[in-house]
Amino acid sequence: MILKSINPYTKEVLEEYKVMSEAELSRKLELGNKTFKSWKTGERSSKMQNLGHLLIKNKTQLARLVTAEMGKILREAEAEVEKSALTVNYYIEHQDEFLSPRMISTDARESYIRFDPLGVILAIMPWNFPFWQVLRFAIPTILCGNVVVLKHASNVTGCALALEKLFLEAGFPEGVFQTLIVDSGNMEMIISSPLVRGVTLTGSNKAGSSVAGLAGKYIKKSVLELGGSDPFIVLNDADIAKAAETAVRSRFQNAGQTCIAAKRWIVESKVAAEFTEKVSAAVGKLSQGNPLLSSTHLGPLAKPDLAESLARQIAFLKKENNELLTGGTYEDCNFQPTLIAMNKDRKSVFNEETFGPLACIYEARNEQEAIDFANETTFGLGASIWTGDLEKGKRLAELIESGFVSVNNMVKSDPKLPFGGVKDSGYGRELSYFGMHEFTNVKSVWVDA
């Protein structure tokens, strides 16, 4: 079987890759397990520091690879690489703090908690942030003493192999970070291996359910970061100009292909007309096209089927008498930024993720109705609340069913804060010390005389 990497803007076939045989996969897992035995007690910080330097040194080259493989505009691709390097520095700085044994007062002479690595961890990662999604998991996981095998999305195989090359150039032993060129049909064979001790997936709900089922079947630790339908709540006392500007940036970055984009704009009635006017004007100024040009705001969607799926969702919303304000058209992977005003009866409840440049405006009569709208979804990843009253913002944040709430800002991951969702958006956490501990054995030690 052959996997192809195709530039979504030019349609050029960038590279073809032969899928690994089961024998090759077994050798990769065996190498990872063998390397783990020495890596778990070795010095790790200097090599990770080298990786951070290489990310910055090769930023332009890496960013161009991202742009070629999945269509992200170049400046956003460069920012992705920079953020990955920033996360390297964060974990190097806090490694000892996060992993040092925690002394606990008990009846024992001495008792404490250790955080020991587990072994080979499988990462199943998506194409929308080809470096960041991988590295925000891999950096803390490898610094803990684990080793990683990566099953990346097939359309960004070049990015996956570039990452493996970077780890080797940084001085990591062969086997600490390996790319598996495999089809999704190989997942049970890999997860069932006694050499694999855990699995993390960032992706769709369907893929998450499948992987979680396999992890449960074979009793493997798992972390899932799945889809979202994030609400962006604008209250009467908010700074409407700032809220509108941020709403557009949050929804349309990466051509709308992000799980934490502000997908549902829920606005109190008093300011709904003003907000709609401002966002409509801003969306109308967004340019879609060549991702290498500095004047482009949105590149193409990563694959033709994504555009077709989004078009079907828009057709469904129009059929339900929601008003198309702008956009809605596409050619191949090039989708125009789209804005829809939702009708008052709210028949369209978003339990299916819209992954692309589509924003929907809901009107709410009051704060409580806005919160009800926000929670009226099976997802629970992120949410944003805009208000001039910070205490009210914090109070309402308690009522939102999501893993992250931002008051007067857009939702964005930060290495200092744990990231993940509730409900159908998954379980477990990445980033912060919570993310560093996900794939460790939290071991209690009791010592008596």
The general outline is globular
The count of domains is 2
Describe the biggest sheet?
Answer: 7 strands, mixed
- Just name the CATH architecture of the largest domain: 3-Layer(aba) Sandwich
User: CATH class of the largest domain, please?
Assistant: Alpha Beta
The oligomerization state is single chain
CATH homology group of the largest domain = Aldehyde Dehydrogenase, Chain A, domain 1
Strand content: 15-25%
Structural class: alpha/beta
Mean pLDDT across every amino acid position: 97
CATH topology of the largest domain: Aldehyde Dehydrogenase, Chain A, domain 1
**Rg:** 23 Å
Distance between the termini: 61 Å
Kindly state the percentage of residues in helix. Answer: 40-55%
* Total E-strand runs: 20
**Total helical segments:** 14
* Strand numbers in spatial order across the main sheet: 12-15-16-11-10-17-18
